[in-house]
Design brief:
289 residues, alpha/beta, 8-stranded parallel beta sheet, 13 helices, binds phosphoenolpyruvate, binds magnesium ion
């Protein structure tokens, strides 16, 4: 135990650099202010993925002020490090999230992620306003859209973001005017058109949990087909390789989040594909490093 603790301590302080001197950015997947604090203590370079829907999981009211408080607290806890906040990711497997939803025959392929937000503009605008305002002080916030399948969703979200900026400006409310807008690459469609998305997205993060599930048509939570849920499947590997290449070709930064980003057996492979930014759960950071 003592040896383990010591090595964890050493790992925390170690530079995140390969033997040939390539600097790797190591970020954290977080869902709470406490997670952000833990990540900073573990030496994270920032938050690669802050899941905002856990605000709703905690059963709290989803008003603008409350959201603003949560985002501002997360940004403060990151102490100037970049924080990528994923807009509300409505998903059937996120049980307890308090989104008013219609019954759907196949909710995993239904009104989830950015689709839900675009279909409920008031709800989404409230989140965008809270995010824009939270970024005013420190400017270390980046927004990311989940479950994107087409360029039109990115455009629609960007239009709404611009409208909220104008509305805040007109009211004299401070906000982060330079906020960047990225795409979570977690559907096969987004992976296949990564070159097109790269023309309009400020950054990518490969969401491996869902990308694996949707490419392989294998429910990530179904134990009966756990063997089919394989991040090493050639279809997944090719997709990830191509997304990284598309990002690099367009000078769009690419990060990776989800379980596969924290798998020590897979990390060398992602790096061989050219990936230099990872986001893993705070407790996994020392091992990933
Ligand atoms: C993912 O899909 O890879 C991801 C990181 O997000 P979530 O697990 O919340 O869907
Ligand atoms: Mg996901």
């Amino acid at each position: 135990q003592r040896r383990h603790t010591l090595s964890q301590e050493r790992l925390r302080a170690a530079p995140c650099t390969t033997k040939d001197g390539t600097r790797i950015s190591l970020m954290a997947d977080c869902a709470s202010v406490e997670d952000v604090r833990t990540a900073v203590e573990a030496g994270a370079d920032g938050v690669g993925l802050l899941l905002s829907e856990y605000l709703l999981l905690a059963g709290r009211v989803n008003g603008e002020e409350e959201q603003y408080g949560f985002y501002a607290a997360c940004l403060a806890a990151a102490q100037g490090r970049p924080v990528t906040i994923c807009t509300f990711d409505v998903a059937p497997d996120k049980t307890g999230t308090e989104f008013p939803r219609e019954e759907e025959a196949n909710p995993a392929m239904g009104l989830c992620g950015v689709r839900y937000c675009l279909a409920h503009p008031d709800f989404f605008e409230t989140q965008l306003r809270a995010l824009l305002r939270a970024g005013a002080e420190r400017g270390n916030i980046r927004l990311m859209l989940p479950m994107v399948t087409g360029v039109q969703e990115l455009r629609a979200a960007r239009t709404m973001l611009e409208q909220e900026k104008q509305a805040l400006s007109a009211r004299g409310v401070a906000f982060d005017g330079a906020i960047s807008l990225g795409v979570m690459i977690e559907t096969p469609a987004a992976a296949v058109i990564a070159d097109l998305l790269a023309k309009e997205a400020d950054f990518f993060s490969i969401g491996t949990n869902d990308l694996v599930q949707y490419i392989l048509a294998a429910d990530r939570g179904n134990a009966d087909i756990a063997e089919l849920y394989a991040p090493c499947h050639p279809a997944v590997l090719r997709s990830i390789r191509d997304v990284i290449a598309a990002g690099r070709a367009a000078d769009v930064p690419v990060c990776m989040c989800g379980e596969a980003a924290a798998d020590p057996c897979l990390i060398p492979l992602w790096m061989a594909f050219g990936l230099d930014s990872f986001s893993a759960g705070p407790s996994a950071l020392p091992e990933v490093r």
